[in-house]
Q: What sequence folds into this?
């Protein structure tokens, strides 16, 4: 698989950067911009494209094995890429209790795209990057299989996300992104000339160390000017609060855009709160990165 074949998927790049009229920003002298990474590709939206592109190039058409939970967007995107580009995919799914049950819509989509699903118990899943466990998984996969980690976050993924930062450089002063593994933040901050805000959607306060480790792996050391605000996880991954739900519904009504709830809603809530707290100097252009699509909420992006 070469660059030409990936370009054959016709990604919409650079993704659009759209001004959004919102008086909560305007009254502080701020401009809100929506970086529409959700529009890059219908099957590989947002950070999925950015993280997979260099990995798929490195895999060069070999089978790709990766990991995810029962609702993983990353598994869905990898399976779709396999179908579109014609390489085999293997999905290692957390939870052996799922084997033999009807597939949920997300896993059914993966299977329809040709992904071979293998269900493993939770302790095996946790140990998936230990050499013996990985060797056993690879032993059942075709020779030469290329491994992409859970969530797609590795050094090549981080490098792919640096392009997002370069697209924003000179066009925004602050960029904001929701964080799960921190891979998108690590790359975005490295490529961007302004300041980058990361909004973790998980509890635990581990994300700074993860993002630093990913920058070390990708670039050999820290890059860019970034910070985290840990207040907006809404109770943890997949959790929400009445205030967050009301906020997301109101944002959708104001801007006519379906908001992905697990990540994007929390980042937008953080930005509006920080604007109201006076956290950004007047005159700042603030780019909110829309990393996922809110169009398919029924097949949740957990
Ligand atoms: C829509 C969306 N936004 C943000 C993220 C966070 O990305 P990362 O794991 O690189 O922090 C994810 C995770 O895959 C996601 O699905």
A:
């Amino acid at each position: 698989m070469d660059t030409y074949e990936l370009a054959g998927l016709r990604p919409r790049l650079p993704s659009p950067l759209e001004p959004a009229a919102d008086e909560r920003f305007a009254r502080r002298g701020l401009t809100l911009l929506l970086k529409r990474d959700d529009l890059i590709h219908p099957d590989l939206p947002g950070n999925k494209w950015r993280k997979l592109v260099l990995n798929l190039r490195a895999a060069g058409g070999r089978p790709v094995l990766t990991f995810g939970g029962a609702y993983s967007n990353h598994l869905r995107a990898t399976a779709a890429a396999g179908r579109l580009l014609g390489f085999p995919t293997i999905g290692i799914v957390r939870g052996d209790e799922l084997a033999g049950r009807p597939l949920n819509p997300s896993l059914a989509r993966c299977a329809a795209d040709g992904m071979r699903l293998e269900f493993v118990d939770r302790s095996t899943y946790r140990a998936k990057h230990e050499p013996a466990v990985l060797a056993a998984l690879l032993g059942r996969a075709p020779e030469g299989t290329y491994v992409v980690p859970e969530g797609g976050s590795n050094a090549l993924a981080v490098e792919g996300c640096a392009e997002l930062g370069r697209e924003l450089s000179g066009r925004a002063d602050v960029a904001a992104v929701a964080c799960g593994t921190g891979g998108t933040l690590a790359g975005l901050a490295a490529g961007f000339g302004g300041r980058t805000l990361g909004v973790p959607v998980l509890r635990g306060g581990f994300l700074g160390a993860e993002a630093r480790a990913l920058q070390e792996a990708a670039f050999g050391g820290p890059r860019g000017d970034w910070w985290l605000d840990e207040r907006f996880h809404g109770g943890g991954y997949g959790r929400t609060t009445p205030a967050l739900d009301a906020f997301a519904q109101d944002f959708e009504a104001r801007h006519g855009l379906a908001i992905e709830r697990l990540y994007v809603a929390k980042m937008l809530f953080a930005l509006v709160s920080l604007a109201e707290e006076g956290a950004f100097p007047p005159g700042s252009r603030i780019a909110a990165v829309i990393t996922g699509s809110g169009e398919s909420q029924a097949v949740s992006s957990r």
Remarks:
- Residues 46-47, 73-74, 151, 153, 178-185, 260, 263-264, 291-292, 301 surround pyridoxal-5'-phosphate (CB under 6 Å).
- The chain has a mean pLDDT of 94.
- The domain at 3-43+153-289 is CATH 3.40.50.1100 (Rossmann fold).
- The beta strands are 17-20, 31-35, 64-68, 89-94, 116-120, 146-147, 174-179, 195-200, 225-228, 285-289.
